[in-house]
Amino acid sequence: MKVALFVPCFIDAFFPEVGIATLELLERLGCEVIYPLDQTCCGQPLGNSGCEAEAAGAEALFVRNFAGFEYIVSPSGSCTHHVRNHLTAIEQTETVKQVRGSVYELVEFLHDVLQVDAFPWAEFPHKIGLHNGCGTLRALRTATTSEIDEPFFSKPMRLLSKIKGIEFVTPSRPDECCGFGGTFSLFEEPVSAKMGYDKVTDHKNAGAEYIVSADSSCLMHQKGCAERLGLDLRFIHVAQILNGARE
Amino acid sequence: MREKRIDHAEAASEFIASTEHVEFHDRRLWDLRKKRDRESESIPEWETLRALASAIKEHTLTHLADYLEEFERNAVRNGAKVHWAVDAQAHNDIVFDILRTRDARTLVKAKSMLTEECEMRPFLEKRGIQVIETDLAERIQQLDDEPPSHIVVPSVHKLRQDVAQVFGRTIGTDPNNSDPHYLAESQRRNTRPYFLEADAGMTGANFAVAETGSIVVCTNEGNADLSVNVPPLYIASVGIEKLVPRLEHLAVYIRMLSRSALGSPITQYTSHFRAPRPGTEMHIVLVDNGRSERLGMAEFWTSLKCIRCGACMNTCPVYRRSGGLSYGATYSGPIGVIIDPTFNLRKYSNLPFASTLNGSCTNVCPVKINIHDQIYKWRQVIAERGQLPFVKKQALQAAGKVLASPKLYRAAVEGVHVAAEHLPRFMVYSRFNAWGRSRDVPAAPPQTFRQWYLNNRGSQ
């Protein structure tokens, strides 16, 4: 299966290991992975800041890079959400619609498309707190939320539970936002930091050694908060665990 | 004179500075959210009710003129007098005129967000009318000369010690006694005599039923009933979006309102005020104040479905940590963020940015308003209308250029690894080092993913 890899800008710049894990994992699972070299950003930071019009250039470039692929896979739920639901600054041609309909967040892709049921190479003998980014959770609906009473499911938890040795802890507010929120983290810095402090403290109190997420942006924010508080917590992306990271 | 933009972030940082307050506020409101979950989970058809509640409101709002006229006909038939107020000024003039012509000097009232919206109290007080809020939390806020910080629990940002101080200063209780029973009882004893003396009583409305011409008020303290049933003159202030067609439709909302608001199955009192008592008068003021204009906004009209339960505020992680007063508006929290800009775009242009777009508000909303989608859309409107701060706009325009060009982008992110201590410039432009003030900055890795890819898969 041919898959185009979309590595969001901040993962490219700050978390190359997440991009590498995603690439290696997809290759292990038999995918032919193409990484379009001219990719930059999906335009989400601009759209979320109200500057959808300014995102037009980034969005057009995104479509040029990824047109024609049946599957576009990204290790970021919020960027996937932007492409799927908010990439509207440019004219909605057939190509644009095709690209928007082909983008998958990594967990969704593994769970829904590849339907992976084993990661025999992976082992992670740690207590983890799972953090679902809000866009991943409530827009992509990779899991049920606490607000709506319906039969429980969690795609990331289902995949991670196949990893040898892994143990889940349950924070008191499992799906409360961590306060990253893109440029919110800068413009509303005091509230953002307070939310992050509360989030990592909740996970720590639940006994987590690691906070695990399909969203590196949430992890970057929470890591910064935990370090500032001096909490002994580690942070790792789902892709790294599924790819067999050992720490 | 142009009004100053509300700086939510700044006001929120002042609220957060008091750890005791922010921790209590967050816990108290989260507790309401959890109680709401328990109640909604106890009703298997909750999601069906939400869909129904939304559909009834959408139907009513898209036939609003008809239902308003039906309501007026029935209210008049019941013996009430109906007034139409195009805006806040008209509302206040009408209320004052009713009071003045009957020589009414004191007005007891139950809580109403609409009269807050119209800034009616100061208007009447300036004209010699004594206005007494009779609900505990509203009274606390009145005595402290502060607006409500929450639409259901108006003084939730205060600790009981704060209340003891306010009462000590204003109604002569012991400022060091913060026992809640003592405080509530003291307020009650202080307020009760006003009911007997008042020339007029006033309530807002939770609902107005077109079929019966009646006003429905849901309360827990029963002060609305006293305000209506003791004085010889009763005035109800009603936003035109409060209409429901029939009593059977009302039942849907009565099942959801208190469950969503406080996590209790129903309010202590659900009062239907239909006609004046013999020998007294009942006036109903139907208020537009921007609602018709909002009804015409393709992206935002469904915000008029709101039944003011406050569930979106209770669940909002930003609201819980910033306090309602930080929004600087009558309506705070997620619902406020999407309503306030319709009153004054410039003044409230920062509010839609006081959100992480997490979407929890939309999920708890009993009438299914797509609150977080509307927040996203308001951001676009605010930028289009030139209301973004200049520096922010410039930085985002620059970022747009960088992100549209592979070459400029690579120069930017690969530069990160040279000046390793900072995020890309487009992420730190706003307030100096906003990231690093409370959080550690991520260490920059030796190479970008792309560089790694070229080194390791480049030959492909």
What does this structure look like?
- Chain A has 13 helices and 8 strands.
- Chain A folds into 2 domains: 2-113; 127-242, Rossmann fold, CATH 3.40.50.
- Chain A has helices spanning 9-14, 16-28, 44-48, 56-66, 77-86, 94-102, 106-113, 134-139, 155-160, 184-187, 189-205, 216-229, 238-242; strands at 2-5, 32-34, 72-74, 103-105, 127-131, 167-168, 210-213, 234-237.
- In chain A, helix 11 (189-205) crosses helix 12 (216-229).
- Chain A is an alpha/beta fold and 247 residues long.
- With 460 residues, chain B is α/β, with parallel strands linked by helices.
- Chain B has 3 domains: 1-33 and 299-388, Orthogonal Bundle (Fumarate Reductase Iron-sulfur Protein, Chain B, domain 2); 43-289, Rossmann fold (3-Layer(aba) Sandwich), CATH 3.40.50; 392-457, no CATH class.
- Chain B is built from 22 helices and 10 strands.
- The longest helix of chain B is centred in the first third of the chain and has 23 residues, at 19-41.
- Residues 418-422 and 428-432 of chain B have low confidence and may be disordered.
